[in-house]
């Protein structure tokens, strides 16, 4: 019998979850531990994986200039695609006006509106005061900062740091192995995560806010089809269909787990095995992307801000909308790759343009559904960056060896 591929297995699990959830209703909750188990299994991999693979990734390049170059390209790519994503969100929301003529009952219930940190604090907070505490708390940006410095120091010291390098190299390999084992459980995990959501919410509760949901979905798809297709084709000469198929396991796991950080092991595996991204690139570009690159979140923020403005009868001038692009870009960088983080950051965007924070409560009701789609795009965006950076690096290396042999 032909073995069914993991992607097909995940897809089948996904469809069965929707059907079973819709038929059984809220009592399908009993399968939730399966989903939680899968979540925990991939979460426990993340901190050691990011630390080890990034240290090895940076040290393995053996060349500080190269790291700087790769970092520069990656960062620029992330910023640009994020700004494009918000612009798509804003344009769609301005055309389709999701917040006008809606008859939603006023929000009830509390909503978490945690104070969003200022831009300066967000930046300062990247530097850990105690890297061991960052590891314990799982603070990704701080871990990345620490790992990059460790990697750089290994490169500078050379021979005397060889043991440390070998240690991280071995640890990284072990974490990849564990990932490969855990990922086999993805179909079960996806079933356990999706069925209870469909069982609990059904489809009908979504109707009043359907326009927002549809717009976020349409925007995400548009961004993927336009921006990512163009960039992988233009910069890496990769067929967009091949790209989307290759990254699909990661996109689907992101959709189910609503966590880019949680999906990271799957993203690394999919880009390396299906899209030929080298480990040096994937171990640098992807952990960074899972932490700072959130195209889906940015697009969602664009749509939701306009929705809230329209809903409460505010007019947003073009100047204010440009401010939104800037703030939402920063907010999406500061958003952690964990479930629901985007909603907290949306608070910052909403208040900074002077809109009523009550709007957040309306979005909160449907946020989980929106989170699925935006996380899926967040991860797909990270993968597209790894493909592009990989191709640029390959081109540069080919040119250099040409020069050397000439
Ligand atoms: N859940 C998203 C992610 O992990 C972040 C967000 O809530 O927008 O990528």
Task: Output the keywords.
406 residues, mainly alpha, 17 helices, 78% helix, globular, binds aspartic acid
Describe it:
It is a single chain. The chain has 406 residues and is an all-alpha fold. Helices cover 78% and strands 0% of the residues. It contains 17 helices and no strands. The longest helix has 39 residues. It binds aspartic acid. The site of aspartic acid has 16 residues, from helix 15 and helix 17.
Q: Catalogue the ligands.
A: aspartic acid
Number of helices: 17
| Range of helix content | over 70%
Q: What are the secondary-structure elements, in order, as H or E?
A: HHHHHHHHHHHHHHHHH
What's the overall average pLDDT, rounded?
84
Question: How do the strands and helices of this protein lay out in sequence?
Answer:
Layout: H1 6-24, H2 32-61, H3 64-96, H4 119-124, H5 131-137, H6 140-157, H7 162-183, H8 186-201, H9 210-236, H10 240-257, H11 260-275, H12 279-292, H13 295-311, H14 318-334, H15 341-352, H16 359-364, H17 367-405
The site of aspartic acid has 16 residues, from α15 and α17.
Give a quick rundown of the structure.
With 406 residues, this protein is an all-alpha fold. 78% of the residues lie in helices and 0% in strands. The protein has helices spanning 6-24, 32-61, 64-96, 119-124, 131-137, 140-157, 162-183, 186-201, 210-236, 240-257, 260-275, 279-292, 295-311, 318-334, 341-352, 359-364, 367-405.
